[in-house]
Amino acid sequence: MHHGQxxxxxxRGLSILRDRIAAAHIPSSKIDETLLVATWNVRELGxxxxxxxxxxxxxxxxxxxxxxxxVEVRDDVHDLAKILQYLGPYWRVVFSEYVMDxxxxxxxxxxxxxxxxxxxxxxxxxxxxxxxxxxxxFVDTVSFWRxxxxxxxxxxxxxxxxxxxxxxxxxxxxxRARELGKLADWIASEQSGRFVFDKDLxxxxxxxxxxxxxxxxxxxxxxxxxxxxxxxDPGSDLAERATYDQILxxxxxxxxxxxxxxxxDVWSGSYxxxxxxxxxKSNAQLTWEMSDHLPLWIELNTDDDRWKADQVLxxxxxxxxxx
Length: 323
Description:
The chain is an alpha+beta fold. The chain has helices at about 10-20, 50-60, 80-85, 175-190, 215-220, 285, 305-320; strands at about 35-45, 65-75, 90-95, 105-115, 120-125, 130-135, 135-140, 150-155, 160-165, 200-205, 245-250, 255-265, 295-300.
């Protein structure tokens, strides 16, 4: 990280945070061999200016991975830009536009990545749901409160697409299940299309699913999405009980997950030690500085010549189909 010269209290906070990160046993990144993918709800990043210490801490956590999906990034991206500065010159971001109504909460999805480990390959889009014609209009019958956002990347021999989402919250489980089911339907339809960009799909974000035994989890996995080996039930709330955040992969995703993954307990019972001499905010208030969610991550093996051969064959088949 490019923290530079920081005040002593921030340096102490970084030292404590590094000890918490070390407890997660995140493997070192190996460019062109493995890829560390994470997702993190960063609690309305940009809604209110964060303390400089917080931006250093967020950068420290993000920098442990190669590609991170951030959800709840707000319309104001000045703090995101500062985090990228602390991450250093190799780090890049691809992010979505925001939705201005109350359901959209002025939120963006952002993919922050180390360009030495992953390369953005050109596709970036909101998910556009299946519509029906009603009179003279084409109407989306089940709305995404915040449209999922996807982007394509390459790491080593592996081309893939990451889709990030923040599913609606609230008391209506039925409405949330419909939105999750619609996401599953869209993915299944897109994956079976003639001109699908890439069938190696990773779906990440905050699904607002309290348990993998709930009908909400059944809805999003109804068309074949599945949890990679090793991260089926880690809780991503601060109590590590609720499975709000998920990393799922498409049904035909290569057998590439190394089995390493989980949550990073940056909370460890209290954020207060990180802010000694910096802020007297309560733990509840400090969740607006750090987050009320924990990062969730997996490791992928990207050094596999089978992927390269499969990709060449798939592209040849797509070209032949257009002739």
